[in-house]
Structures are given as C-alpha cells and as structure tokens.
Write a structure and sequence with these properties.
The protein has 263 residues and is α/β, with parallel strands linked by helices. It contains seven helices and ten strands. The longest helix is centred in the first third of the chain and has 17 residues, at 53-69. The protein is elongated.
Amino acid sequence: MIEFQRRLLTLLDEGHRLAVATIIESRGSTPQQSGGKMIVMEDGRIFFSIGGGALEAMVIQEALACLAENRTALKSYALHDVGDDALGMACGGKATVYVEVLSPPNDLVIFGAGHVGRALARLAPPLEFAVTVVDDRPHMLDPDQFPAGSRFHATDRTFIEHLPRLGASSFVVLVTRCHETDEAALRSILDAPVAYLGMIGSKRKVKVVFDRLIADGVPRSALERIRAPIGMPIGSHLPEEVALSIMAEVVAVRNGAARKAGD
C-alpha cells in the first residue's frame, strides 16, 4: 500500500490526470481480494493490478471511459464463464469495483516575489490553488511573506536554471520586477504545456516584448495563447487590486468561462 501511495503521489505531482480502480467487495473466488488497487493513465498505461485477465481488462475500459467523461463508476463483475453477465472466467466469484478520477492540484506559479506576487499568493489558497514562487533574488523568497506550504525556486537572472516542473495543471503568471525579467521568464517557459500563461504590463510593453520574440524567430501563433496585458479590466492600481484582476482571470480560465487570449 505504501508503494501504491508513493506512485500515486508522484504521478499527480508530475501533473498526470488518472483513474484509481479499487475492489471494494469480493465474494467467492476472485483474482484479488477487497482493497486491491490499480492506477489507469489517460494513455492506457497501468500501474499495479487487480488480478489481470478479463476482469482487469473490463475495469481498464471503464476507467478510460471515466477519464474521458470525468465521472466515477461503481460496477459489479460476475467472474463466471456462463450467464448474461459472465466475463468468461472460471473463478466463480463476484467483484465490485469503484473507479474514481483524480486530477493534480492546480498550481499557481508566480514568477516574481514582489508586491503583486505576494498579493497573488495570499489569494490563491482559498481558491484551491497551491502556490509556487520563482524569483532570481533569493532574499525575496521569504517564507514568512507567503502562505504556509508555498514552494520556492531561486533561479538565475536568465530564468533558465532551477525552474519548477510545469504541466497541464499549472497556471503561470509573470509579474517580475521589470519587463526584461518578464521577457526572460517568458522565453524560458513559452513552450510549456500550461493551463494559463499571463504576463503583466501595458499594451506598449507587451508589444515591445512580442516584437523582440518575433524578431528572434518565435512564430506569432506561439504568442496567441499568452494573456497580456494580464487580468480582468477592473481599473486596478494597487497591488492587491492587480492581484484580484489576475486571479479573476485565472479562475475564469480554470472554470472555462474566460475570454480567449488576445480577445
């Protein structure tokens, strides 16, 4: 069980969405008893086993359907070789399997530990975001200035070294101290498959940064997903107001209710 939990946590921490199938009841002769667990990935890979054979194959198909439809399932399987609900197995028992879909926690990755970054971090936990902070100034990564449980990455000025792993559950905001460091961070993570990527700054600053990237060979299509200027238009000025406008957009994207980048 400990090995199962370690593998599950590792996969979720790596940003994978997956299904866990658990035998919650077994009667008679079954390949595995109650408590047996299996992890099913979206690409069909499995970790651990609930006994193999026709039962496991059926559960894998059910788990993939649950992943595709984002639902849970509770099904019973008759391990007989005859009958309407038979699986062609000679065990003679019956197994009830519960399948649940697990997604990695949303991670708000804040590039910049200044006033706006700290205000963003304070807003994140009540909205069910974990917090990761990246800055090239180690002295700014003071745990006392951020919510408990925040993770910190001290990078170099080019924002290449010691960056966090980014994936489909990462919501990335670029709010560093100046447009040069925002641009450096953007260059480093431009191809990362994140759920949200926004950069702070005026329309003029955004144009300057984008023009530089295009001049260096970055295709315009690669810039279309960047939300810049970042945030909802609420007339914000104070760092806390800017953070609120950004979090409103981040939550809207997470909930599927946001405008498209560039609109």
